[in-house]
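Sharing a chain and its predicted structure for anyone who wants a worked example. Both blocks are below, sequence first, C-alpha cells second.
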Amino acid sequence: MTTFGIDLGTTYSCIAYVDDSGRAVIAKNAVGEDTTPSVVYFETADNVVVGPEAKRSALLDPDRVVSLVKRSMGQRLDLDFDGARHTPESVSAIILRELARAAAEQTRLEVRDVVITVPAHFGVAEREATRNAGKIAGLNVLNLVPEPVAAALHYEAITGAGNRTIFVYDLGGGTFDTTVLRIDGTEISVVCTDGDHRLGGADWDARIVDHLLSEFMDANPESAADGSEDFLQGLAIAAEEMKKGLSSARSRRHHVRFDGEAARVELSREEFEELTADLLERTFEITRRTVGLAAERGVTVFDDVLLVGGAGRMPAVAAGLREQFGFEAKLHDPDLAVAKGAARFALIESVKVRLPGEDASDNAVVSQVADQLGLDEAEVRMLARKRITTVVPRAFGVKVLKSGPGEAEIHQIAHVLQANTPLPAHLVPHRFRTVYPDQTAILVEIWEQAGAVASAELPDNTKIAEGLVSGFPPLPEHSPLNVTFSMDELGTLRVHAVELTTGKDLRLEVRIEGLSAAEVGLARDTVARYDLRE
C-alpha cells in the first residue's frame, strides 16, 4: 500500500507520494492545482466545501467559513454549524479528508497510511491535536514529521547531498520556524529549532489590508466600509494577491470599491517592506537565537541556507538574511518541498513498520517488503537504515513555590526538560523538597513552555497534566522528592516522581487533555456524514 505525506498548512495544504520511479510527486487537487487553500465553508448541514471555492465563499458568507485553523490546534475552541459541534481537529480533518479523496481519485491508489507535517516548535498539545485530526479523517497516522525535517529530506533527495549542515528558514502562511539540521550519511538530525506559530504570511497580508482600508477611508471618510465583513474579506483576498505580485513587481495597485464609493490605492515594494519591517525583524530575532544556540553546539558554518514556505519568496527575506547574517539563501521549492519530503518520510516509516528490529538482515523478509512496496531490495535496506532524530520542541517543568516562609505564596515553573534536548531524552532525576510540615500527599503539576523563550513565570507556561503522590505518613518539612522527565522520538512525555522517604511514586504518560476517544469517535461520525466538494 502506498503511503502519503501531507503538508497540513495554515493557509495552503498539499499531499504527495513517492511514485514507481522513486520521485516524490504531488497529487493534484480536484481542480488540478498542487496546493489547496486550508479553508472550509460549511455550506449546508450536509455539505462542506474545501479549497478555492471555500475561500471565495468567505466574501458571501463569512460566518460559515473557517480559515487559519492551524493556529488554534491544541486549544479548546468550539464552533457550531447547523447544530454540529466542531473543533480545530474536526475542521482540520475535513481538509485532510478532501486532500485524501482528491489524491485517491487522481492516483487510483488507496489513501490510508499517512504522515502529517507539523511546525518544528509545535508542543505536545498541538501534535496530539494533529494526530486526532488524522484519526477523525479516517486516516492511519504513521507519524508526524517536523516541517524543516521534511524539507531537508526533499533537499537531500534532489541534490544527492552528502554530509551537510543546513539552516532552514521556513516562513509559511501562518507559522514560522528556523531549524539547523545535519545530514550525515543515513542520518538526518536536528541540532536546534525555534519559531513562532502565530507569525506567517497571513500577518503580512493583514498589514496590506490595513493599508488598503486606511487609504479608502481617507478618500471616503463617511463610508461604512470598515464595518462590513464582506468588504474586509474582499480586501484580504486582494492583499494576498498584492503581496505575491510585489515579489516580482516594484509596485501594485488595487481599485477599492464599496457601496458606490471608490479609491485607487497603489503600494510600492518599498512601502510594503516598511509596513511590515517589524514582522520581518521578528523572524530575524528568532534566526539570531537559533544561530546562537547552534554555535553553542559547535555549528558555526552552514553549507546551505534554505528558504521554505511561500512567504519566503518576498525579496526582503533573502536581502535581510544576507545583510544581517551573511547568508546566501536559496529558495527550495518553497510551496511543495515540505509535502514532497513528507512523502519520503512516509516511505521510510512504511518500511520500518514492515521491517522492525533486526529484520533488515533477513533476506526473505526484505524481499517480501520490497514486493509489497514496489521497491528493490537495496532501497529497502537503505530506507531501513535511515535515522531521523529531532529535539524537544519546548521546555517542560513542574510548578514550585518561589516564596519563603511567612511570605505571600508565589509560584513559578522549574523547567526540568529543556527545549532543543536531543530525542530520545532520558534525564537524571531533579531533586525537589516539600514546603509544608506534615504533608501526606504531593501534587505534581506538569507545565509546558508557551512563549517563544522559556520563562519561569506562570503566564508564560501552560499546564498540561498533574498527578498525586500519596499514601505516606505525615512528612517533615523539606522532605525530598525526585522528579524525572523523559520523552521518546514520537514526542510522548513521561514523568516519574518518587517520594524518597517512603518510596511512594507516581508515573505519568502525558497525553494532553484534548479530545477524548469518545469525542474523536463522535467527530469522525460528524465529519464522515458531509458531502465534500472543492
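Comments welcome. The chain has three domains: 4-163+334-387+519-533, 201-275, 396-503.
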